[in-house]
Automatic annotation (TrEMBL):
Signal peptide: 1-24
Top-level division of the source organism's lineage: Eukaryota
Transmembrane segments: 370-389
Main location: secreted
Designated name of the protein: DUF642 domain-containing protein
Organism: Handroanthus impetiginosus
Compartment(s) where it occurs, according to its Swiss-Prot or TrEMBL record: Secreted, Cell wall
Recorded GO CC terms: plasma membrane
Amino acid sequence: MVFSSTKCRWASVFLLLVVCSASAVVEDGSLVNGDFESPPSGGFSSDAGISDGPAVIPGWKTNGTVELVESGQKQGGMILIVPQGAHAVRLGNDAEISQEVKVEKGSLYSVTFSAARTCAQLESLNVSVPPASQTIDLQTLYSVQGWDSYAWAFQAEEEDARVVFRNPGMEDDPTCGPIIDDIAIKKLFVPEKPKDNAVVNGDFEEGPWMFRNESLGVLLPTNLDEDTSSLPGWNVESNRAVRYIDSYHFSVPGGKRAIELLSGKEGIISQMVQTKPNKPYRLTFSLGHASDACKQPLAVMAFAGDQAQNIHYTPDSNSTFQTANLNFTAKAERTRVAFYSVYYNTRTDDMSSLCGPVVDDVRVEQSASVRIRVGGLGLLLILLLVVVLL
Ligand SMILES: *[C@@H]1O[C@H](CO)[C@@H](O)[C@H](O)[C@H]1NC(C)=O
Ligand SMILES: *[C@@H]1O[C@H](CO)[C@@H](O)[C@H](O)[C@H]1NC(C)=O
Ligand SMILES: *[C@@H]1O[C@H](CO)[C@@H](O)[C@H](O)[C@H]1NC(C)=O
Ligand SMILES: *[C@@H]1O[C@H](CO)[C@@H](O)[C@H](O)[C@H]1NC(C)=O
Ligand SMILES: *[C@@H]1O[C@H](CO)[C@@H](O)[C@H](O)[C@H]1NC(C)=O
């Protein structure tokens, strides 16, 4: 009697565990076998040939020509690029990989992944969590390593999400196609607007997943929808990406994260901030270098409402950044704040990786000092009036 009831309790505890683990939402970090280092059941095939059947990749569903590639593997004299570790996957024409994850319905998520192109110049990657999708252009190489990390965000419409990577390309050589590695996910929160600052996430601390040991930062491609941005609050308005950088591998003015602007005016970040019409405001921000051997000069074009200012970074051996500001009068309830790099900078050590000025700690505050000055002006007018009347 006692024995069987104990068994029952154990069984129900077990059931509870099963139920709990089945509904557990995905944790921040790598997806299952997101680095493609788990060996397939038959082991990694060490020869460079392409298997006829679809590769069975632990954790992933595939469709079309999906190949596990190994670092050092050659194709027609060219060594294939594997971003991290020893393995990655390559997607042939119209091929895809996907993984199902449990997410929190209604929440915002960002997917980080590394990608390299192989033969063609015009390779791209369609990242989706149906019905949301974005095609990421891999044509521009931002770093000389030949690969980059990217982030893309989506709003979870269902608890069951399928993260899909598809090569929409149709190349003559079916073995061409992008290489993907290091796929991770992160649930984002939208930071509250601070009381004394109209900018949301002005310190850029909330953003996509970054692997601690990946040194290239994460590119944020075009994103015009501020509600689904990997960088909550901000849009990437341009057709080129900006780089999200961390303090482990770059110089960052404040906290652990900042933005490095790339590609001149082809890389623009912006935010619509809440303002009161006809009130004076001041935009302040940190402007610096990332300690990535970026060729000077570094400068940004900063916009706030109808004001625009070109601000050059002045190198100072004691600091990696300076504080810059721009005064403006709000014309409406929402004012656009935006930044782009004035120059098209590259690194001095490899002459080709894109780099640029770092922006951080963006603040928009109603300016009290200007109000005092207006008060002084009023006093002056009254005095003048008195003088005229006399
Ligand atoms: C594989 O992709 C093709 C089209 O590219 C599609 O018709 C087919 O249904 C897909 N198969 C699976 C199992 O998803
Ligand atoms: C990307 O893939 C999604 C889902 O597979 C599809 O709905 C969408 O049309 C594709 N986008 C492009 C630009 O091909
Ligand atoms: C990076 O860290 C992950 C674990 O966080 C590890 O599996 C991987 O091997 C590391 N990669 C390198 C190149 O150190
Ligand atoms: C750097 O710091 C040192 C001492 O802390 C000071 O003497 C020097 O003037 C500073 N240089 C600059 C450019 O601010
Ligand atoms: C903005 O106004 C403040 C206070 O009036 C002033 O100190 C600052 O220099 C102004 N900034 C610019 C860029 O003119």
